C-alpha cells in the first residue's frame, strides 16, 4: 500500500523516522556508557520491539502488563516502578523484571526480601522536591502532596540494606538544563546515599530527540554521576523514542458553517488522541496554519457525542471537502497506549511506513475489540 491507500483513521509510524531517533539515543549510550530504556507508557507498539531492542538496552514498565509485554516481546533488561504493588501480582512481576523500584520504604519492608531472594535488583524512588513544571501540576511529580517518591524528610537510611538503586523522575518534555537543576537538588539532598548505590535512574521526560535539545549537557550530566558515584546511569524516555515518528491519518466526514467553519472528522480527540484534551495541546496538522492565516478556517472536531470533542482550529488555503484526508503529526506517542472506544468508536488501524513509502497495516480493529472490553 501507499499512504493514500490506508484506511482512516490510522496511526502510521515511519520506520526511517523511528530509526533516526534510535540512532541518536544509541549514540548517547555509546559515548557515555549509560543505558537507555523504552518507557512503554508512551509507546508500546510491540511489533517494533525487535527494532527498538537492537538499539536500546531494554524496557521500563509501570505495571504487570507492561512488564510482561517488555519481557515477552523485547526480552532485554526490564525495569518496573509502581506507586504500589498488588500482592497477587508480585510474584509474576518478579519473574519478568530484573530491576524493581519501590515508591516507599513500607513497600520495601513488605516485598524487599522477596526481591533479594529472587536475585533481582531493588531500588527506591526519591522526590527531590525540585519542581520543573510550569502550569502543568498534573505532570509534576514534585508538586506539594505528591504521592510519587520519598522526600528527604521521610527517607529511612536504616532500611537501605539490599537497595542498589536510586530512581527519580521530575521532567516532562524538557531539556537538559532542567535535568541539571534536578541533579543539583538530588545531590544536595541524597548525595551521601548515592555512594552506596550500583545504579541511578534519571527517569523520563527527556526530550532528547527534539531539534535543539542540548545533548552535550545531557552527556555531561550522565558522566558526572557515573564518575563521581561509580554507578550505572539509566534513562527511560518514552516520547523521545518515537517523537515525530508517526502521524494520524483521518478523513473529513462533513463540513458546515456554525459561528465559523466546522469540519467533522472520522478521528476523535477524545478517543484517538486523548492528550489533546488532557494535556491540553493543539497537534500539528500538515498543510495548515493558525486560524485566519489562510483564507479558510475550520474548527476540526470528532464524531462523538462529547461537546468538547474538538481537536483545534486550523486554516487552509482551500475549502475542505468531504472525503479529504488530513494528517496530524507526532501521533505515535501517547496515542495507541491511551485510546479508547467511547461511543463505540472503532480504534484506528496501526500501520508502518518503510523507507520508500511502502506501507503495511500491522493491526486493524473492529466490533469485537469494542465488545470484549464490556
Automatic annotation (TrEMBL):
SUPFAM superfamilies: Alanine racemase C-terminal domain-like, PLP-binding barrel. Residues 140-331 form the Orn/DAP/Arg decarboxylase 2 C-terminal domain. Its cofactor is pyridoxal 5'-phosphate. InterPro entries: Ala_racemase/Decarboxylase_C, De-COase2_C, Nsp_de-COase, PLP-binding_barrel. Keywords: Decarboxylase, Lyase, Pyridoxal phosphate, Spermidine biosynthesis. It comes from the Bacteria. NCBIfam families: nspC (TIGR01047). This is Carboxynorspermidine decarboxylase. It comes from Blautia parvula.
Amino acid at each position: 500500500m501507499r499512504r493514500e491507500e490506508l484506511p482512516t483513521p490510522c496511526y502510521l509510524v515511519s520506520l526511517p523516522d523511528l530509526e533516526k531517533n534510535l540512532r541518536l539515543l544509541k549514540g548517547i549510550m555509546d559515548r557515555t556508557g549509560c543505558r537507555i530504556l523504552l518507557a512503554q507508557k508512551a509507546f508500546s507498539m510491540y511489533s517494533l520491539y525487535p527494532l527498538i531492542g537492537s538499539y536500546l538496552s531494554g524496557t521500563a514498565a509501570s505495571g504487570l502488563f507492561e512488564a510482561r509485554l517488555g519481557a515477552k516481546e523485547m526480552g532485554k533488561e526490564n525495569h518496573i516502578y509502581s506507586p504500589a504493588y498488588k500482592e497477587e501480582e508480585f510474584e509474576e512481576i518478579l519473574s519478568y523484571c530484573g530491576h524493581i523500584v519501590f515508591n516507599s520504604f513500607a513497600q520495601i519492608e513488605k516485598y524487599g526480601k522477596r526481591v533479594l531472594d529472587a536475585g533481582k535488583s531493588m531500588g527506591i524512588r526519591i522526590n527531590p522536591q525540585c519542581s520543573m513544571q510550569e502550569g502543568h501540576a498534573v505532570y509534576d511529580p514534585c508538586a506539594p502532596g505528591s504521592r510519587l517518591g520519598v522526600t528527604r524528610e521521610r527517607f529511612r537510611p536504616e532500611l537501605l540494606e539490599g537497595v542498589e538503586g536510586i530512581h527519580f523522575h521530575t521532567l516532562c518534555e524538557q531539556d537538559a538544563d532542567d535535568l541539571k537543576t534536578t541533579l543539583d537538588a538530588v545531590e544536595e539532598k541524597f548525595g551521601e546515599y548515592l555512594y552506596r548505590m550500583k545504579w541511578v535512574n534519571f527517569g523520563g521526560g527527556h526530550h532528547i530527540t527534539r531539534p535543539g535539545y542540548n545533548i552535550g549537557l545531557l552527556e555531561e550530566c550522565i558522566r558526572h554521576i557515573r564518575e563521581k558515584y561509580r554507578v550505572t546511569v539509566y534513562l527511560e524516555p518514552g516520547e523521545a523514542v518515537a517523537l515525530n515518528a508517526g502521524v494520524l491519518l483521518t478523513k473529513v466526514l462533513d463540513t458546515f458553517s456554525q459561528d465559523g467553519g466546522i469540519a467533522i472528522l472520522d478521528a476523535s480527540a477524545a478517543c484517538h488522541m486523548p492528550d489533546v484534551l488532557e494535556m491540553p495541546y493543539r497537534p500539528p496538522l500538515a498543510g495548515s496554519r493558525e486560524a485566519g492565516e489562510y483564507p479558510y478556517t475550520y474548527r476540526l472536531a470528532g464524531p462523538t457525542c462529547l461537546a468538547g470533542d474538538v481537536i483545534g482550529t486550523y486554516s487552509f488555503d482551500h475549502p475542505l471537502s468531504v472525503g479529504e484526508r488530513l494528517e496530524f503529526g507526532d501521533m505515535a506517542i501517547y496515542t495507541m497506549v491511551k485510546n479508547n472506544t467511547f461511543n463505540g468508536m472503532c480504534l484506528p488501524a496501526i500501520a508502518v511506513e518503510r523507507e520508500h513509502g511502502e506501507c503495511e497495516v500491522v493491526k486493524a480493529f473492529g466490533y469485537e475489540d469494542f465488545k470484549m472490553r464490556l
